[in-house]
Design a protein that fits this description.
This protein is of the alpha/beta class. It folds into 2 domains: 144 residues, Periplasmic binding protein-like II (D-Maltodextrin-Binding Protein, domain 2); 151 residues, Periplasmic binding protein-like II (D-Maltodextrin-Binding Protein, domain 2, 3-Layer(aba) Sandwich). α2 runs antiparallel to α12, α3 runs parallel beside α4 and α6 packs across α7.
Length: 346
């Protein structure tokens, strides 16, 4: 009987120990889950051609942040046509920061109430940590002998170019072409409109974003010339050596992608401080070098000069200020019923 009691007592004690151990395991798992849920996450909604840039930058920033705070962070990237990305944020897409192709797209988000006014002065260089310009990408040996904008309106030239209604890069493209036409027609806007109309009549594929246009030209083999961001053209030449050439037109434009904190979302997510650090670090020497290596022009002039073998630093670039700023440019060219709609739908 005593032995039976002892066996029962031993069994009960064993069950108690097992229950305690199981409880500890659950507690440990729960603690791990809790720790994981506390891990900071940052979402960057960006435009098409910055995918590779931010893959490299996010890794560098995460290491920097870990060294400074001891904390791990998760950075989520989202890419698409800049105008479409801006609309997605306005319509509720979760984004702590935006890094878009032009200031106008960020202004639209500001007007929705998600970004505080004055965002353009929050970071250096009008909140543009890097710039780019517009070039032509042609096939090996340039079979259509494309040297400047006027060659794009010739019969038989097939152009690949994104849609200004959804792509920020396409807006820069349009403005550069318009300015070329003005310069060569004594500032006659009617003749400029005729020129750009002929150019768009030669556009055979108009993708929604710049990366889609690059894919159409490079991977799908369509078209004779791609009107492209400089970084897209540089990356294509590097990825497919001997297959493509870059042509820099006589008139191009200083394209200034802009960055901003989406204040309404960052406040909700508790990421205000992290978002500011994320965008500030874009101006660090490490980030500026990554920017140059990725085909964008660093805003740091000293670091930019170290990439003089990659970029034509002597090209004459017009700016958005030559068009009265983005509000004026959109009203004249890109709003519904404006010049682009007239020439494309007319």
């Amino acid at each position: 009987m005593t032995l039976l009691k002892n066996k029962k007592s031993f069994k009960i004690i064993s069950l108690i120990i097992a229950a305690v151990m199981f409880s500890c395991v659950l507690s440990s798992c729960s603690g791990s889950s809790s720790d994981e849920s506390k891990k900071l996450k940052l979402t960057n909604v960006s435009y098409d051609p910055t995918r590779e840039l931010y893959q490299k930058y996010n890794e560098a920033f995460a290491k920097y942040y870990k060294s400074e705070t001891g904390e791990d962070i998760e950075i989520v990237q989202s890419h698409g046509g800049s105008g479409a990305q801006a609309r997605s944020v306005i319509e509720g897409a979760d984004s702590d920061v935006v890094t878009l192709a032009l200031a106008h797209d960020i202004t639209l988000i500001e007007q929705s109430g998600l970004i505080e006014s004055g965002w353009i002065d929050e970071f250096d260089n009008d909140s543009s940590p890097y710039t780019s310009t517009i070039v032509f990408l042609v096939r090996k040996d340039n079979p259509k002998a494309i040297k400047d904008w006027n060659d794009l309106i010739k019969d038989g030239v097939e152009i690949i170019n994104p849609d200004p209604k959804s792509s920020g890069g396409a807006c820069w493209n349009f403005l550069a072409a318009w300015q070329y036409a003005l310069n060569n027609n004594k500032n006659d806007e009617n003749k400029a409109k005729e020129f750009v109309t002929k150019l768009y009549q030669n556009v055979t594929v108009m993708d929604s974003g710049a990366r889609g246009a690059t894919t159409t030209f490079v991977e799908n083999g369509q078209g004779d010339v791609l009107i492209a961001w400089e970084n897209e053209a540089l990356n294509s030449v590097a990825e497919y050596p001997g297959e493509y050439e870059i042509v820099t037109p006589s008139v191009s434009i200083l394209a200034q992608p802009s960055v901003a904190i989406v204040d309404g979302n960052a406040e909700k997510d508790g990421t205000e401080k992290l978002a500011k650090q994320y965008l500030e670090y874009l101006y660090s020497d490490e980030a500026q070098k990554i920017i140059g290596e990725s085909g964008y022009r660093p805003s740091n002039k000293k670091i930019l000069k170290t990439f003089s073998d990659k970029f034509d630093l002597n090209v004459d670039l017009i700016t958005i200020n030559d068009f009265g700023g983005w509000d004026a440019a959109y009203e004249k060219f890109f709003d519904d019923g404006a010049i682009f709609d007239e020439i494309y739908n007319g």
